[in-house]
Design goal:
Blueprint (H helix, E strand, L loop, with lengths): L5 H9 L10 E4 L2 H6 L3 H8 L7 E4 L6 H10 L17 E7 L5 H11 L5 E5 L2 H13 L4 E4 L5 H13 L4 E5 L13 E4 L6 H8 L9 E7 L4 H11 L4 E2 L5 E4 L37 E4 L6
Parallel strand pairs: 1-2, 3-8, 3-9, 4-6, 4-7, 5-6, 7-8
Antiparallel strand pairs: 10-11
Helix pairs in contact: 1-3
Protein backbone atom coordinates (compact mmCIF):
# COMPACT_ATOMS: atom_id res chain seq x y z
CA UNK A 1 0.00 0.00 0.00
CA UNK A 2 1.39 3.39 -0.99
CA UNK A 3 -0.10 6.59 0.46
CA UNK A 4 1.44 9.67 -1.11
CA UNK A 5 0.85 13.20 -2.32
CA UNK A 6 1.07 13.53 -6.13
CA UNK A 7 4.24 15.62 -6.23
CA UNK A 8 6.28 13.34 -4.01
CA UNK A 9 5.09 10.22 -5.84
CA UNK A 10 6.16 11.77 -9.15
CA UNK A 11 9.61 12.42 -7.70
CA UNK A 12 9.98 8.71 -6.92
CA UNK A 13 8.72 7.75 -10.36
CA UNK A 14 11.15 10.12 -12.07
CA UNK A 15 13.99 8.68 -9.96
CA UNK A 16 12.83 5.16 -10.93
CA UNK A 17 12.65 4.35 -7.23
CA UNK A 18 9.19 2.84 -7.56
CA UNK A 19 7.24 0.79 -10.10
CA UNK A 20 3.44 1.07 -10.35
CA UNK A 21 2.85 -1.54 -13.07
CA UNK A 22 1.39 -4.03 -10.59
CA UNK A 23 -1.07 -1.61 -8.97
CA UNK A 24 -4.57 -3.10 -8.70
CA UNK A 25 -6.47 -0.26 -7.01
CA UNK A 26 -6.08 3.52 -7.42
CA UNK A 27 -7.73 5.74 -4.80
CA UNK A 28 -8.00 9.50 -5.29
CA UNK A 29 -9.06 10.97 -1.96
CA UNK A 30 -10.23 14.60 -1.65
CA UNK A 31 -10.04 15.00 -5.42
CA UNK A 32 -11.52 18.51 -5.30
CA UNK A 33 -8.88 19.54 -2.77
CA UNK A 34 -6.13 18.25 -5.07
CA UNK A 35 -7.68 20.29 -7.88
CA UNK A 36 -7.64 23.40 -5.65
CA UNK A 37 -3.93 22.81 -5.07
CA UNK A 38 -3.23 22.39 -8.80
CA UNK A 39 -2.39 18.68 -8.59
CA UNK A 40 -4.57 17.40 -11.46
CA UNK A 41 -1.76 17.59 -14.08
CA UNK A 42 0.46 15.56 -11.71
CA UNK A 43 -2.29 12.98 -11.27
CA UNK A 44 -2.64 12.56 -15.02
CA UNK A 45 1.13 12.05 -15.33
CA UNK A 46 1.04 9.43 -12.57
CA UNK A 47 -1.77 7.55 -14.30
CA UNK A 48 0.48 6.97 -17.32
CA UNK A 49 2.60 4.72 -15.08
CA UNK A 50 -0.39 2.58 -14.03
CA UNK A 51 -1.69 -0.59 -15.70
CA UNK A 52 -4.82 -0.23 -17.82
CA UNK A 53 -6.67 -2.92 -15.84
CA UNK A 54 -7.29 -1.61 -12.32
CA UNK A 55 -10.04 -0.47 -10.00
CA UNK A 56 -10.42 3.30 -9.54
CA UNK A 57 -12.07 4.99 -6.56
CA UNK A 58 -12.59 8.76 -6.52
CA UNK A 59 -13.72 10.57 -3.36
CA UNK A 60 -14.71 14.23 -3.50
CA UNK A 61 -16.70 16.51 -1.18
CA UNK A 62 -17.76 18.62 -4.16
CA UNK A 63 -17.92 17.85 -7.86
CA UNK A 64 -16.66 20.77 -9.98
CA UNK A 65 -16.45 20.37 -13.75
CA UNK A 66 -12.74 19.54 -13.68
CA UNK A 67 -13.29 16.63 -11.30
CA UNK A 68 -16.19 15.33 -13.40
CA UNK A 69 -13.96 15.39 -16.48
CA UNK A 70 -11.23 13.53 -14.61
CA UNK A 71 -13.73 10.92 -13.43
CA UNK A 72 -15.02 10.45 -16.98
CA UNK A 73 -11.46 9.91 -18.18
CA UNK A 74 -10.38 7.31 -15.62
CA UNK A 75 -13.62 5.56 -14.64
CA UNK A 76 -15.37 2.93 -16.74
CA UNK A 77 -19.13 2.75 -16.21
CA UNK A 78 -18.75 3.77 -12.54
CA UNK A 79 -21.21 3.31 -9.70
CA UNK A 80 -21.95 6.60 -7.94
CA UNK A 81 -22.51 6.84 -4.20
CA UNK A 82 -23.66 10.29 -3.10
CA UNK A 83 -24.40 11.45 0.42
CA UNK A 84 -26.90 14.27 0.87
CA UNK A 85 -24.18 16.76 1.75
CA UNK A 86 -26.61 19.67 2.20
CA UNK A 87 -28.68 17.91 4.87
CA UNK A 88 -27.87 19.40 8.26
CA UNK A 89 -27.28 17.25 11.33
CA UNK A 90 -30.32 17.32 13.62
CA UNK A 91 -28.25 17.33 16.82
CA UNK A 92 -26.84 20.80 16.05
CA UNK A 93 -28.46 24.07 17.09
CA UNK A 94 -27.88 26.97 14.70
CA UNK A 95 -27.46 30.46 16.17
CA UNK A 96 -27.04 33.78 14.37
CA UNK A 97 -25.28 36.88 15.71
CA UNK A 98 -25.68 40.02 13.58
CA UNK A 99 -22.69 42.34 13.71
CA UNK A 100 -20.80 44.98 11.78
CA UNK A 101 -17.68 43.48 10.19
CA UNK A 102 -15.26 45.67 12.14
CA UNK A 103 -16.75 44.50 15.44
CA UNK A 104 -16.60 40.74 14.85
CA UNK A 105 -13.53 40.08 16.99
CA UNK A 106 -14.92 42.04 19.93
CA UNK A 107 -18.24 40.20 19.68
CA UNK A 108 -16.47 36.84 19.37
CA UNK A 109 -14.54 37.43 22.58
CA UNK A 110 -17.76 38.45 24.36
CA UNK A 111 -19.51 35.29 23.17
CA UNK A 112 -16.62 33.06 24.23
CA UNK A 113 -16.51 34.66 27.67
CA UNK A 114 -20.22 33.98 28.23
CA UNK A 115 -20.74 30.60 26.54
CA UNK A 116 -19.49 27.36 28.07
CA UNK A 117 -17.21 26.09 25.32
CA UNK A 118 -15.04 23.01 25.81
CA UNK A 119 -13.55 22.60 22.33
CA UNK A 120 -14.14 25.27 19.69
CA UNK A 121 -13.44 25.26 15.95
CA UNK A 122 -13.55 28.71 14.30
CA UNK A 123 -13.66 29.20 10.52
CA UNK A 124 -12.33 32.19 8.58
CA UNK A 125 -12.18 32.80 4.83
CA UNK A 126 -8.47 33.63 4.61
CA UNK A 127 -5.29 32.17 6.08
CA UNK A 128 -4.15 35.65 7.13
CA UNK A 129 -7.31 36.14 9.20
CA UNK A 130 -6.99 32.65 10.71
CA UNK A 131 -3.47 33.44 11.92
CA UNK A 132 -4.24 36.95 13.19
CA UNK A 133 -7.46 35.87 14.94
CA UNK A 134 -5.72 32.99 16.71
CA UNK A 135 -3.02 35.38 17.93
CA UNK A 136 -5.65 37.87 19.13
CA UNK A 137 -7.47 35.15 21.08
CA UNK A 138 -4.19 33.89 22.53
CA UNK A 139 -3.38 37.41 23.75
CA UNK A 140 -6.80 37.49 25.41
CA UNK A 141 -5.96 34.39 27.43
CA UNK A 142 -7.41 31.60 25.28
CA UNK A 143 -5.38 28.50 24.43
CA UNK A 144 -5.73 29.02 20.68
CA UNK A 145 -3.82 28.05 17.56
CA UNK A 146 -4.39 28.31 13.81
CA UNK A 147 -4.46 25.88 10.92
CA UNK A 148 -3.80 27.52 7.56
CA UNK A 149 -1.97 27.02 4.31
CA UNK A 150 1.31 28.71 5.28
CA UNK A 151 2.11 26.10 7.93
CA UNK A 152 4.72 23.42 7.36
CA UNK A 153 3.54 19.83 7.72
CA UNK A 154 5.27 19.65 11.11
CA UNK A 155 3.54 22.81 12.39
CA UNK A 156 0.21 21.62 11.00
CA UNK A 157 0.56 18.29 12.80
CA UNK A 158 1.50 20.04 16.04
CA UNK A 159 -1.62 22.21 15.81
CA UNK A 160 -3.86 19.21 15.11
CA UNK A 161 -2.32 17.07 17.84
CA UNK A 162 -2.58 19.93 20.33
CA UNK A 163 -6.25 20.43 19.47
CA UNK A 164 -6.99 16.71 19.79
CA UNK A 165 -5.23 16.24 23.14
CA UNK A 166 -6.64 19.41 24.69
CA UNK A 167 -3.48 21.53 24.70
CA UNK A 168 -5.41 23.98 22.53
CA UNK A 169 -9.09 24.55 23.29
CA UNK A 170 -9.60 26.78 20.24
CA UNK A 171 -8.57 26.06 16.64
CA UNK A 172 -8.95 28.75 13.97
CA UNK A 173 -8.87 27.36 10.43
CA UNK A 174 -9.70 27.98 6.80
CA UNK A 175 -11.96 25.59 4.90
CA UNK A 176 -9.11 24.10 2.87
CA UNK A 177 -6.73 23.72 5.83
CA UNK A 178 -9.48 22.05 7.88
CA UNK A 179 -10.02 19.27 5.33
CA UNK A 180 -9.67 15.92 6.99
CA UNK A 181 -9.93 17.17 10.58
CA UNK A 182 -11.40 14.35 12.66
CA UNK A 183 -11.68 15.49 16.27
CA UNK A 184 -14.41 14.07 18.47
CA UNK A 185 -16.18 16.14 21.08
CA UNK A 186 -16.10 19.56 19.39
CA UNK A 187 -18.72 21.50 21.34
CA UNK A 188 -18.91 24.62 19.15
CA UNK A 189 -18.27 25.55 15.54
CA UNK A 190 -18.10 29.30 14.96
CA UNK A 191 -18.39 30.86 11.51
CA UNK A 192 -16.35 34.02 12.03
CA UNK A 193 -16.81 34.53 8.30
CA UNK A 194 -19.97 33.28 6.61
CA UNK A 195 -19.00 30.64 4.01
CA UNK A 196 -19.52 31.20 0.29
CA UNK A 197 -21.75 28.15 -0.22
CA UNK A 198 -24.42 26.24 1.68
CA UNK A 199 -22.37 23.07 1.23
CA UNK A 200 -19.40 24.68 2.98
CA UNK A 201 -21.67 25.67 5.88
CA UNK A 202 -22.87 22.08 6.19
CA UNK A 203 -19.31 20.71 6.11
CA UNK A 204 -18.17 23.22 8.74
CA UNK A 205 -21.00 22.72 11.18
CA UNK A 206 -21.00 18.94 10.70
CA UNK A 207 -17.83 18.75 12.77
CA UNK A 208 -19.90 19.22 15.92
CA UNK A 209 -22.92 17.24 17.10
CA UNK A 210 -21.36 13.92 16.08
CA UNK A 211 -22.18 10.44 17.37
CA UNK A 212 -25.48 11.53 18.96
CA UNK A 213 -23.76 14.35 20.86
CA UNK A 214 -25.30 17.80 20.74
CA UNK A 215 -23.39 20.72 19.30
CA UNK A 216 -23.81 24.41 18.62
CA UNK A 217 -23.03 26.29 15.40
CA UNK A 218 -22.66 30.04 15.82
CA UNK A 219 -22.51 32.38 12.83
CA UNK A 220 -21.33 36.01 12.90
CA UNK A 221 -23.05 37.67 9.95
CA UNK A 222 -22.21 41.08 8.52
CA UNK A 223 -24.35 43.19 6.21
CA UNK A 224 -23.34 41.57 2.94
CA UNK A 225 -24.13 38.08 4.27
CA UNK A 226 -27.92 38.41 4.13
CA UNK A 227 -28.43 36.43 0.91
CA UNK A 228 -26.24 33.53 2.04
CA UNK A 229 -27.97 33.39 5.44
CA UNK A 230 -31.30 33.09 3.62
CA UNK A 231 -29.94 30.24 1.48
CA UNK A 232 -28.57 28.43 4.54
CA UNK A 233 -31.89 28.78 6.36
CA UNK A 234 -33.77 27.38 3.36
CA UNK A 235 -31.53 24.31 3.45
CA UNK A 236 -31.93 23.97 7.22
CA UNK A 237 -35.68 24.19 6.78
CA UNK A 238 -35.92 26.67 9.61
CA UNK A 239 -34.70 30.06 10.78
CA UNK A 240 -31.54 30.33 12.83
CA UNK A 241 -32.04 31.45 16.40
CA UNK A 242 -31.01 35.09 16.71
CA UNK A 243 -29.03 35.95 19.81
CA UNK A 244 -27.42 39.20 20.88
CA UNK A 245 -24.86 40.33 23.41
CA UNK A 246 -25.38 43.38 25.59
CA UNK A 247 -23.48 46.30 24.06
CA UNK A 248 -24.15 45.26 20.47
CA UNK A 249 -27.32 46.96 19.24
CA UNK A 250 -29.03 46.01 15.99
CA UNK A 251 -30.13 48.54 13.39
CA UNK A 252 -33.35 47.43 11.67
CA UNK A 253 -32.85 46.79 7.96
CA UNK A 254 -34.47 44.56 5.38
CA UNK A 255 -32.46 41.46 4.47
CA UNK A 256 -32.31 42.42 0.81
CA UNK A 257 -31.38 46.07 1.36
CA UNK A 258 -27.87 47.48 1.84
CA UNK A 259 -26.95 47.56 5.52
CA UNK A 260 -26.53 50.91 7.22
CA UNK A 261 -25.08 51.40 10.67
CA UNK A 262 -26.05 53.84 13.37
CA UNK A 263 -24.25 54.68 16.57
CA UNK A 264 -26.35 54.49 19.69
CA UNK A 265 -26.13 57.06 22.45
CA UNK A 266 -24.92 55.63 25.77
CA UNK A 267 -27.79 54.31 27.84
CA UNK A 268 -28.08 53.66 31.55
CA UNK A 269 -27.99 49.98 32.41
CA UNK A 270 -30.92 48.59 34.33
CA UNK A 271 -31.77 45.23 35.82
CA UNK A 272 -33.36 42.89 33.29
CA UNK A 273 -35.16 39.75 34.49
CA UNK A 274 -33.75 36.45 33.25
CA UNK A 275 -35.18 35.35 29.94
CA UNK A 276 -36.16 38.84 28.80
CA UNK A 277 -34.59 41.90 27.24
CA UNK A 278 -31.56 41.78 24.97
CA UNK A 279 -30.62 38.21 25.67
CA UNK A 280 -34.07 36.85 24.91
CA UNK A 281 -34.16 34.73 21.76
CA UNK A 282 -36.17 36.65 19.17
CA UNK A 283 -36.88 36.57 15.50
CA UNK A 284 -36.99 39.96 13.86
CA UNK A 285 -38.89 40.47 10.64
CA UNK A 286 -35.75 42.01 9.16
CA UNK A 287 -32.06 41.27 8.87
CA UNK A 288 -30.16 43.74 11.02
CA UNK A 289 -26.69 44.21 12.40
CA UNK A 290 -25.20 46.06 15.34
CA UNK A 291 -22.23 47.97 16.64
CA UNK A 292 -20.97 48.11 20.21
CA UNK A 293 -22.45 50.75 22.46
CA UNK A 294 -19.99 52.64 24.70
CA UNK A 295 -20.45 51.74 28.35
CA UNK A 296 -22.18 54.36 30.49
CA UNK A 297 -20.09 55.67 33.38
CA UNK A 298 -21.97 56.09 36.66
Amino acid sequence: IIVACPGRLLDHLNDKAINLREVEVLVLDEADHMFDKGFLPDIRRIMKHLPAQRQNLVFSATMPAEIRHLAEDILNNPATVQINHTQAVTTISHVLFQVAKENKTSLLKSIMSQEEMTTTLIFTKTKHKAKSLALALEKSGYSATSLQGNLSQQKRQQALDGFKNGTFKVLVATDIAARGIDVSGISHVINYDVPDTVEAYTHRTGRTGRATRTGEALTLAAGEDGKMIQAIERTLGKKMVIKSIAGFVADVQDRDEPIKYRREMPIRKKHTPAGSGRNKRTRASSFDFGIPVPAQRH
